[in-house]
Amino acid sequence: MELTPVMQKYILHWGEMGTRWGVNRTVAQIHALLYLAPEPMHAEEITETLGVARSNVSTSLKELQSWGLVKVSHVMGDRRDRFQSLHDLWETFYVIIEERKRREIDPTITTLRECMLDAERDKATPHDVIKRIENMLRFIEVLTKWYGQIRTIPHSALVKLLKMGSRITHFIGSK
């Protein structure tokens, strides 16, 4: 696949953003390449296009598959796996949020709940520290519940809601 300067810029930037989000640069660049690709690509094409090691491509593709961001497809007569990213941005957004929730938020809630249970027996932990932990737990639980509710809103309605921005405060009676 021949990359135009615009495509190169996009892929390089996505790789940089990936590192800021805690994702390996090559993983993010492969995701960007597959998002832009008009057809599914096999690993050798990805290796040649991005100029990265084949082993790095394999590892990165496994990571992207574990997130659910890349799917395997096949072409009749070709034994190689081909890879394509999700092209629906809402679906991509939800896959990322769900996976981050599963990997980061859910274990945090579990640990905070354990801390609260332990704090009932631990007389050495100051009350204000326990209160801060409880506040963090309640905050994350509220956000998690809110996300669950937002997740059920159809995309078209959610887009309208997002475009309303701060005007929504007028409807809920808040200044």
Descriptive overview:
- The chain has about 180 residues and is mainly alpha-helical.
- The chain folds into two domains: about 5-85, Arc Repressor Mutant, subunit A (Orthogonal Bundle); about 90-170, no CATH class.
- It has eight helices and three strands.
- It has helices at about 5-20, 25-35, 45-50, 55-65, 90-120, 125-150, 155-165, 170; strands at about 40, 70-75, 80-85.
- The chain has a three-stranded antiparallel beta sheet with strand order 1-3-2.
- It is extended, with a radius of gyration of 22 Å.
- The model has no long low-confidence stretch (mean pLDDT about 95).
Can you give keywords for this protein?
175 residues; 70% helix; three-stranded antiparallel β-sheet; mainly alpha; Arc Repressor Mutant, subunit A
Total helices: the number is 8
Structural class: mainly alpha
Helix and strand pattern = HHEHHEEHHHH
Strand content: 5-15%
Total separate domains: 2
Enumerate the strands of the largest sheet in spatial order, edge to edge or round the barrel: 1-3-2
Cα Rg? 22 Å
Unreliable residue stretches:
none
> How helical, in percent, are the residues?
55-70%
Mean pLDDT: 94
Described by strand count, sense and barrel closure, the largest sheet is: 3 strands, antiparallel
Number of β-strand runs: 3
Terminal residue distance: 53 Å
* Global geometry: extended
